[in-house]
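INFO  loader      accepted 1 record
INFO  loader      residues=150
INFO  predictor   begin
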Amino acid sequence: MALRESFTEALKAAMKAGQAGRTSTLRMILAGLKEIDIAARPKPPVSEADIISMLRRMVKSRQESVALYRQGNRPDLVEKETAEINVIEEFLPPEMSNRELLAAVEKALEETGAVAPKDLGKVMGALKARYGGQIDLGRAGALVKARLAA
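INFO  predictor   done
INFO  writer      dumping tokens
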């Protein structure tokens, strides 16, 4: 089942079960999806990789909020944001382990022939094209920069 349909099905199930927090988070996901659909017009529908990227941004934003709420001693908001993260992560493919990420970076460096920091974009493009939603581009970028700087 495609991600779009799984969001809708999960929303229906959450509404029937009376899960207010889950319903709210799923509606927020669908609203975010609608925003990227509108931004992509008149192009064809948004790809699964774009949806996964949107979900990862949502998780990252909430993780940053959790850190701030912890500093501000707001356990109620930490709990709310953490619950939202858990719902969003249900729809994300598992991220690569550190070992898999290192192997992917090495392979991309080899394939692109990158040797200098100016080749970063070329390597990152290759990683994104090959691994899409499975790879955390932030972590991968740091690894690529370190390897190219060495």
